[in-house]
Each structure stands twice: as structure tokens, then as C-alpha cells.
Design brief:
InterPro entries: CBS_dom (IPR000644), CBS_dom_sf (IPR046342), Diverse_CBS-Domain (IPR051257). This protein is an alpha+beta fold. The chain has a single domain, classed as Roll (CBS-domain). It has six helices and four strands. The chain has a two-stranded antiparallel sheet. It has a two-stranded antiparallel ribbon with strand order 3-4. The longest helix has 11 residues, at 24-34. It is globular, with a radius of gyration of 16 Å.
């Protein structure tokens, strides 16, 4: 296993993002349509927060299968904004951070995704799933 492999080798660069003007229904739709669990919230190219699917589950019934509960989700979503639900105090890394450095951060924190930021611009995202898949490829 290469010890100095940069995170840029495994990060997602085609990042799906949200803006503060988006609503939580849009966020839920993006999570489900793209089968992802983390979406950076941006203002231009600058990341200002991170919304996770778990954040939505905390305030709603977003994973329900009963069609009648969709109305409940809508009501709950209209009570909150993305800014109120998103994580604001973010930890980020640069694209030349090593995979090992990123793994160490994620192993010690209570979140499962890190934004990759170069020159104050969001350039990617890496998740614990990306790290696991990298590890699997090593065997």
C-alpha cells in the first residue's frame, strides 16, 4: 500500500451541491436520486456547510415507504431551512492531503465525509466508503 497516496486519487470531483436557497425536499430528492449520504452546501465555489442524509432523518421520516407520510415530510421540511439543519463547523482537507491523513481524521471524528478544499474552493469530497473501497482494492 502506498503511504503517500494523495486523497485526490480517490476523492469524488463531480460533487453534487446545495445552496442556502434550496429547500430540504430538494436535498432529500438529491440524496435518493444519486444514492449519496452527504451534500456540501456552497455559496459560489466556497463551502459553507455539509448536509447529511442522517441530518434529514433526525427531523423527518425521510426513509419511510408509506406514501401518506410524504405529506408529513413536506410539512416538517417547511419548518426548517438547509442552514438550520446543516453542519457548519467543518473540517476540510486539501487535495494533496494523504489518504492516511484523511483516514486518521475520519476515524477520530463523528462524521463520515470531508470536503476537499484548495485555495478556498470546493474541489471534491471524500467519504468513509471511498476509503473502504480503496482499502479493498489493495487486497
Amino acid at each position: 500500500m502506498k503511504k503517500r497516496t494523495p486523497i485526490s486519487a480517490i476523492m469524488t470531483t463531480n460533487v453534487i451541491t446545495l445552496n442556502l436557497t434550496d429547500n430540504l425536499e430538494t436535498a432529500e430528492s438529491l440524496f435518493k436520486k444519486n444514492k449519496i449520504r452527504h451534500i456540501p452546501v456552497v455559496s459560489g465555489d466556497h463551502i459553507i456547510g455539509m448536509l447529511s442524509y442522517t441530518d434529514l432523518l433526525r427531523i423527518s421520516f425521510a426513509d419511510s415507504v408509506n406514501e401518506d407520510e410524504q405529506d408529513v415530510d413536506t410539512v416538517v421540511y417547511n419548518m426548517f431551512t438547509i442552514e438550520q439543519v446543516m453542519a457548519k463547523n467543518l473540517v476540510s482537507v486539501t487535495s494533496n492531503s494523504t489518504i492516511k491523513e484523511v483516514a486518521e481524521i475520519l476515524s477520530k471524528k463523528e462524521f463520515h465525509a470531508l470536503p476537499i478544499v484548495d485555495d478556498n474552493k470546493l474541489v471534491g469530497i471524500v467519504t468513509t466508503t471511498d476509503l473502504i473501497n480503496f482499502l479493498i482494492e489493495q487486497f
